[in-house]
Amino acid sequence: MRVLVADHPLIAHKLTYLRDRRTDTPTFRRLADELVTLLAYEATREVRVSPFEIETPVAATTGIHLATPKPLVVPILRAGLGMLDGMMRMLPTAEVGFLGMVRNEETLEAHTYANRLPDDLDRRQCYVLDPMLATGGTLIAAIRFLVERGADDITAITLLSAPEGIEKVQAGLADVEPPITLVTGAIDERLNEQGYIVPGLGDAGDRLYGVV
Ligand SMILES: O=P(O)(O)OC[C@H]1O[C@H](OP(=O)(O)OP(=O)(O)O)[C@H](O)[C@@H]1O
Ligand SMILES: O=c1cc[nH]c(=O)[nH]1
Ligand SMILES: [Mg+2]
């Protein structure tokens, strides 16, 4: 897996306010939305395009547009939904599929409770959205799901990642053939005993949806 940390002062600035426990839910949501648009710029560098003929008021020219089949954006419910609008602003014609996954707070195992994805993802480029990569269990399960259905190029976008989780994803997907890229806003210090990212931002789902 290729790991890209989007190293930019605007991203670090917005992440600082996102982390701050004093940041209220509406501001948290807005910052998550803004951050994903910045991360999407890096994450879509290799989005597939095809030539497209147009005429400007001055001359005929060849431009590009998104190739078909269109990319698939997959937010992982619940917290990944907070990144969907920002991503769709960047890729307005992409298709959206949903995966509902939740971590068991004791065992930290990821459990899939909802799947609304196309059955056939043959040759599809997929963008997985989840703000947090902690132990990595959720991302491994989500990526395996997509690969089993034929996805041939997968980019995960996270706002924060833990070093232990990145290592686990590398090891857990070592046998997976399609190229996998992780674009993240920052790699934090570590996980704590409860599997939370340190310093992190707390529970992303709770902070996005006002459960405190
Ligand atoms: O890397 P992992 O250890 O698997 O943890 C990361 C997952 O935990 C959070 O979701 P959570 O299970 O809290 O569900 P939620 O989005 O509904 O809050 C987060 O949004 C990731 O999906
Ligand atoms: O720090 C963490 C780890 C998992 N899920 C979260 O929402 N936050
Ligand atoms: Mg949660």
TrEMBL record:
Provide the species name.
Serinicoccus chungangensis
In terms of InterPro entries, this protein maps to: PRTase-like, PRTase_dom, Upp_B, UPRT, UPRTase/APRTase
GO BP annotations of the record are: UMP salvage; uracil salvage
- The EC number(s) given in the record are 2.4.2.9
Recorded hits in CDD domains, A to Z, give:
PRTases_typeI
**Ranges where the Phosphoribosyltransferase domain occurs:** 5-210
Q: Which cofactors does this gene product need?
A: Mg(2+)
User: Is Iron-sulfur one of the keywords?
Assistant: no
| Family membership | Belongs to the UPRTase family.
Which top EC class is named for this enzyme in its record? transferase
Q: Which NCBIfam families match?
A: PRK00129.1, upp
Which superkingdom? Bacteria
| One annotated Gene Ontology cellular component of this protein | cytoplasm
- Which named protein is this? Uracil phosphoribosyltransferase
- Keyword GTP-binding: yes or no? yes
What the protein does? Catalyzes the conversion of uracil and 5-phospho-alpha-D-ribose 1-diphosphate (PRPP) to UMP and diphosphate.
Q: Which residues participate in 5-phospho-alpha-D-ribose 1-diphosphate binding?
A: R78, R103, D130, P131, M132, L133, A134, T135, G136, G137, T138, D203
Q: How is its activity regulated?
A: Allosterically activated by GTP.
Please tell me where uracil binds in this chain: I197, G202, D203, A204
Q: Which SUPFAM superfamilies match?
A: PRTase-like
Keywords carried by this UniProt record: Allosteric enzyme, Glycosyltransferase, GTP-binding, Magnesium, Nucleotide-binding, Transferase
What terms describe the molecular function in GO for this protein? GTP binding; magnesium ion binding; uracil phosphoribosyltransferase activity
Q: Which PANTHER family match?
A: ADENINE PHOSPHORIBOSYLTRANSFERASE, URACIL PHOSPHORIBOSYLTRANSFERASE, CHLOROPLASTIC
Pathway(s) served: Pyrimidine metabolism; UMP biosynthesis via salvage pathway; UMP from uracil: step 1/1
Query: What does the note under cofactor report?
Result: Binds 1 Mg(2+) ion per subunit. The magnesium is bound as Mg-PRPP.
Q: Which reaction does it catalyse?
A: UMP + diphosphate = 5-phospho-alpha-D-ribose 1-diphosphate + uracil
